[in-house]
Amino acid sequence: MFIKTHLRESLQNLLSAKLRSFLAILGVLVGTASVVALVSGGQLATEHALAQFRELGTDLLAVTLQDMSRDGSKDVDKETESENVTKVANHLKNVELSAPYAIDFSAINYDGHQLRGNIVGATETLQKILKLKLTQGRFISDLDQKESYCVLGDSIYKKLVSMGMFDVLGEHIRIGDRFFTVIGVLQKTNENMFFLVDVNNSIVIPAFAALALNNYVTLNNVVFKIKADQDVNPIKDSITSAFADSFPTKKIFFRSPQEIINGMKKQNETFTLLLGFIGSIALIVGGIGVMNIMLVSVVERRREIGVRMAVGAKRRDIQLMFLTEAVVLTLFGGLMGVMTGEVVAWMVALISQWKFHLYILPLIVGFFVSALVGIFFGFYPARKASLLDPIETLRSE
């Protein structure tokens, strides 16, 4: 009953000064909304990135071969080296599929217009490993070898459509100094950090045709799909051993979805703490606003405080009354801030085309932190009110 009385009186006092209460609530609302929106937005971004890896599966392993010698590759025939890379990749144990590929950034031209995009020299197994789907035509085949065929990524296809190429199959695109015939169009796929380039903004050509584009293109990347329930570390050792025997001058770098996922989770923890700290600054500013409003309220209600003390109210009653008002203010502002923050996070997810999830932790943290702000910043005004001299307060106008 005692708490209910204080709550009822607090609401009455806050409603009697609506504008002042609204301004105090607004500061807490903005601070809480900042915390919730920033933390929820960071978690949504991380979850979106992790979902891309889960679609591909965690049974993948990527290898990049980098030549560490200054002149070791000058006298090596690129086709022979690429054939050796393919041969080694296809004869590894505990590997279900392997897809060597090359990346190039040669100029892409169509009908006098230059396009910005990537060139991927690939084999047909790349489609199976990356789960690429086609909207038109077919993918690159191992039978194509050095043929001048190409498959368009979704973004490249849309750029060509905007230039007037509606029936793309059979059309010719100039890549470097060669013309390639379009044989397929890829469906839009999610960009991920596992593959080195964005497939949507790429043109896929046969791997050995890519080697002829310029002297810098090499088949130095491989994507592996390992067999189910296999430990990755022994497979890494066998890959390192196999490539070291055939390519002693090259250093091997590994990437796996599981390692990237674990790294992203750690980054997310740090990112969440940083965003929470930034949002907390706005919440502290809101708390200072509440303290200023409560100090003004103490000055305006000096006579009321004196009357309450004269009829038997104790100092702790006065302190609890003002502290309750501060907590009610911040709790209401926190509740509104939590809802506003989630709405902002939902809008960010909608604009970014992320799947929206309602995370409980930011809601709980935002709500309880706002209550702590009310207690912390409301204590000083409440304490000051309780220490007023009742005789002096009754004399005040």
Task: Identify the notable features of this structure and list them briefly.
single chain, 397 residues, alpha+beta, 2 domains, 12 helices, 12 strands
User: What is the gyration radius calculated from CA atoms?
Assistant: 33 Å
**Helix share, percent:** 55-70%
Share of residues in strands: 15-25%
Count of discrete structural domains: 2
User: Largest sheet, if any?
Assistant: 12 strands, mixed
Rounded mean pLDDT is: 82
What's the count of strands? 12
Structural class of the helices, strands and pairings? alpha+beta
SSE string, helices as H and strands as E: HHEHEEEEHEEHEEEHEHEHHHHH
- Give the terminus-to-terminus CA distance: 32 Å
Low-confidence regions: none
SS element count, helices: 12
Cα shape: elongated
Structural write-up:
With about 400 residues, the chain is of the alpha+beta class. The chain folds into 2 domains: about 1-55 and about 260-395, no CATH class; about 60-255, no CATH class. The chain has helices at about 1-15, 20-55, 80-90, 125-130, 155-160, 205-210, 230-245, 255-300, 300-310, 315-350, 360-385, 390-395; strands spanning about 60-65, 95-105, 110, 115, 120, 135, 150, 170-175, 180-185, 200-205, 220-225, 250-255. Strands 1, 2, 3, 4, 5, 6, 7, 8, 9, 10, 11 and 12 form a 12-stranded mixed beta sheet that branches. A hairpin with a 2-residue loop joins β8 (about 170-175) and β9. α2 (about 20-55) runs antiparallel to α8. The chain is elongated and about 100 Å long.
Summarize the structure.
With 397 residues, this protein is α+β, with helices and mostly antiparallel strands. The chain is 57% helix and 17% strand.
